[in-house]
């Protein structure tokens, strides 16, 4: 199998660690050191990038060590996910926290990691506001909260322009309702703040369980300012962020996504973001990459004109026939 | 029971007609003439406005008759819903139809009804693009479609500034995916087109089954340009547009909605938009209005400061306690 | 492409007619006569069976004509769907209707069509209780309703043992809640009534949007009395009964379904049950059958032992790898 | 406020501890000792029962201590939840684990806790098979797994008849698909095993997010053998097991549930089962109980005949009117 060779694969480092949930709090596996996780990552074929989560993987203290591992195991750091969600202090929000002190800490955390990113030759951070939201009715002032988020992100984006901020939306979890929940709201916010280094980080699983079509989602990023900065790949059953391996459920929509990523000239990372609770992390990442390559391979070998013609016909029988032909060559 | 007397209730005229679905195509009731529907509407307590659907209820031919009924039965026309969805010709979209001819017809239809609205002393039309979307993968060019919608709505908004356009979003049905699907996308589009007479028509049922919180949704309309032009009220089980009577399921969230409509100084219609398939239309509308009044009554009698304090505490136990107190006085 | 030749394909006749929904009540196409629909059905490759809906397609009056068409166009009648849902009189239920008179009519309707089935050399009827349910809280006495359904179905099953009854469950639509809603409830009812000629008609789309796994569903039919009598094939996005073409979304789960249908020795019809609102009926049925053949073809050529080994390992990385291998041979 | 005094309230002990999720693994609060949790439980008004989770709260070692606390703080133990889900060893199932050794351990675990229950004067255990299910396609042999579950539960039920087993179903989490997922499947299994001491433990949140109506669910338990053994009370947004305070969302359906629990003569515990991640456990439990009392109070003071008449009319306008009247007296 050949494939479009210029695609760069990345994954989140935590896939090689231990996964816990609220019922099995000690996790389904055993804990790993950072270096053990780098060693496991090395076993994945065609993986050249790693995403790190702030505090979980990288912090001010261990930055030299991370730099060493990164070089020693020859990985690029594709993205740093800012920790605004793993500590109890963020439980009522980070940027939208009504406690000024916490809110300032959140902004400082982002700035600190923008600097750390540069040290690690990484030019992208991920702001995911998972704890910023609400669970119950009459629990928050929506306007105040949104204004705080706008303000906070503006300040971060203005901090240094050489680091890009990918804003990652998610409709729920850990809050029952997150503020930055859909592609529409995310692009609206970005349009409002209007900073060159501020764009979207699309986690396709989050798109799927907001009933978005992944291909439309990335197309809208293109249309509204060429704002697709990064992409997280995984799969789910559309009702929850199951964070399953790529290829588990949505083959057809994934195939369409591959086509549109190409059509909009996306040239960023293809970054796996899964939660292999009961699976071997290396195996699960390998599988995810293999599925993407298969689908990529199809898209890069089928005549583009033919696909365009089918799309422009808006005839779903032709679409079905094309997909069959592409899958079962 | 007393209630905030300045609220104006409206309903969609079709509630008094016959409701059909794909299984019982002849409908669960018998057909009614337009006048019969006006007469039934008159039986609803405290109803002062009617929404009409283009072609179903009003058209170039019967406009004088409608004007006569409107005066005779003393109703205001709160809104005209443009028919871009009841005819087979719209099946692959109106504004985003790839057939130039159909697309032009869609724009002409809107303009025509903007004129008709003025004749009926109505200053608001509803553009709901229910047929503009897609059902299958590889069935549409998202960027092309969105551009066509932006263009079409721009042209309509520019046609005459004395008629307001409420853009009504809906996540699906009749298409499995509609383009204008969530509050985020709607506000993004409105921000992009940037016309004073273009705003949002929030159907709260559509909000609910996109997993939006209704109160947050209307608050965002306020925040992003004071754009809440009109509101459709109904209820559902959050997975489909069941168009049930107000008060059927989401009492708590409705109560919160009432608070926020007041807080953002919404002064438009409270317009019932239900589908009483198996219910008497007069009774179902009456019930819906009575529920709203009860909830309004609570909000207008509880001390505003107390509600604000609870909200600002972000303590959901206080929220729960407040809601209990409000409901079970 | 070769495929397991003993599979018999059937489809519902209405796919060749006009499809309407609540917004476009006159339908997206033009009406067809019964014979026109038979002629269109004839254009579908490898189609040997037709499902008829009572009253819509067949009734006491036109039975000779139907018999003539059936022979002339050489189709078998795979199943007759009893009309307990297309007329306003069923709006508050058929078997569970609190009006004795309507309830008796429902039972008579079934018996009449059991006789008609035999005349058409068809040994299976479909009882789908789409109107038996409720929409609101405090709207029905659940125990009374369930008892009536048990009684009614018992009586029908006892009427003549040479006609099988496939009980088709569906979680909602047209009611917001149907009584016979999931595979569990259906098998429970069947266990309770305990009649040899009473079994399950699994509409896989209904299974999907009840969050069932189709393969588990048919396996349970096997386990609890070998009760899979018939199967309706279509696809959807898991939140509504979209009745799309097979192959639109759930390729992986469909592949697994094909494996389990073989494993449990299902030897009934593979019956397409789609709603091609905006699609050519012949084309949409053709596509559905072609997808099934492709998937069947895979299952019948892969080494059964290999699949069993993967399944028994319960290692989802092996599952993923197997599926990749099967799809991208 | 007065209320039906014979209702006994219980809650799960973990509500007074620390709640963690996959993102904030150290939890949103601080850890508590067992005694600290008993002391907190004592602060809840009208609470007389506690549910314990095996291993988390009670085990062979600390049983005397638990007995001491129970007496000292005068609580009854309403139920013991068997730990078949908190340890990594159960990750691929307990009763349906393909490793004989693990499967035996699961059965032994249940028996052990049946004995422990009796020591604590508790006559009910909860078997919740949260880890028994599957995440991916081609990952399990459904028939084999179900047979193992049937066998295992049979053996446990036969172990000692003086301890009742409440089988608790849940559609997903921690697996993406659990075997014992809906009320239908649960009753089917119970019917099949047919043991006097085997019944259903309905967690109403699990019912809600399987799109069940809670009132219908408990009614079916009555109808199929009077099998409602215990009930877990909480609330959610119908798409996930949010485990929120009672009264947060589904007031109307909860009111109906209270009516039907009375109608079917349910005389067991009203047991709160919430996850107050960010809430004070005492406050959240107090609120839940207060909501139930309010709703109970309504049901016990409204004329039963009137409710029956409305239900028997099957007229949802009357239902709506009744609910309004009950809530806003």
Taking all Cα atoms into account, the compactness measure Rg of chain A is: 20 Å
Low-confidence stretches of chain A: none
CATH architectural group of chain A:
Alpha-Beta Barrel
Question: Would you list the SSEs of chain A in sequence order as H and E?
Answer: EHEHEHEEHEEHEHHEHEHHH
What fraction of the residues of chain A are assigned to beta strands by DSSP? 5-15%
Quickly count the helices of chain A.
Answer: 11
Biggest interface, CB < 8 A: A-B, 56 and 56 residues
How would a crystallographer describe the biggest sheet of chain A? 8 strands, parallel, barrel
Q: What's the domain count of chain A?
A: 1
Please state the average pLDDT score of chain A.
97
Structural class by helix and strand composition of chain A: alpha/beta
CATH level 4 superfamily of chain A = Divalent-metal-dependent TIM barrel enzymes
Report the span from N to C terminus of chain A: 13 Å
Describe the structure.
4 copies of one chain form a homotetramer. Chain A is α/β, with parallel strands linked by helices and 329 residues long. Chain A has a single domain (9-327), classed as TIM Barrel (Alpha-Beta Barrel). Chain A contains 11 helices and 10 strands. In chain A, the strands form 2 sheets. In chain A, strands 1-2-3-4-6-8-9-10 form an 8-stranded parallel beta barrel, surrounded by 4 helices. Chain A is globular, with a radius of gyration of 20 Å. The mean pLDDT of chain A is 97. Chains C and D meet through helix 4, helix 5, helix 7, helix 8 and helix 10 of C and helix 4, helix 5, helix 7, helix 8 and helix 10 of D.
């Amino acid at each position: 199998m050949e494939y479009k060779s210029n695609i760069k694969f990345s994954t989140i480092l935590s896939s090689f660690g231990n996964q816990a949930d609220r019922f099995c709090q000690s996790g389904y596996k055993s804990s790993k050191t950072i270096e053990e996780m780098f060693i496991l990552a090395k076993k994945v074929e065609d993986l050249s990038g790693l995403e790190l989560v702030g505090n979980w993987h990288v912090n001010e203290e261990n930055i030299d060590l991370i730099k060493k591992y990164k070089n020693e195991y020859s990985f690029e750091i594709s993205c740093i996910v800012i920790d605004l969600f793993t500590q109890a202090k963020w439980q009522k929000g980070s940027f939208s926290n009504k406690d000024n002190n916490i809110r300032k800490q959140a902004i400082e955390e982002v700035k600190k990691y923008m600097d750390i990113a540069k040290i690690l030759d990484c030019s992208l951070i991920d702001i995911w506001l998972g704890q910023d939201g609400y669970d119950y009715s009459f629990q928050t002032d929506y306007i105040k909260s949104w204004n705080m988020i706008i303000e906070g992100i503006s300040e971060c984006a203005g901090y240094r322009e050489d680091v890009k901020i990918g804003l990652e939306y998610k409709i729920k979890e850990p809050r029952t309702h997150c503020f930055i929940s859909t592609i529409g709201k995310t692009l609206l916010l970005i349009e409002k703040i209007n900073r060159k280094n501020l764009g979207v980080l699309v986690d396709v699983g989050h798109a799927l369980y907001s009933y978005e079509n992944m291909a439309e989602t990335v197309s809208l990023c293109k249309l509204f300012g060429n704002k697709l900065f990064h992409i997280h790949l995984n799969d789910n059953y559309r009702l929850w962020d199951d964070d399953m391996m790529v290829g588990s459920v949505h083959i057809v929509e994934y195939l369409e996504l591959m086509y549109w990523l190409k059509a909009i000239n996306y040239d960023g990372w293809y970054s796996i973001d899964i939660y292999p609770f009961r699976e071997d992390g290396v195996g699960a990442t390998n599988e995810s990459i293999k599925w993407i390559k298969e689908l990529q391979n199809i898209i890069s070998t089928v005549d583009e004109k033919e696909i365009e013609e089918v799309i422009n016909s808006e005839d779903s029988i032709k679409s079905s026939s094309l997909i069959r032909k592409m899958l079962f060559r």
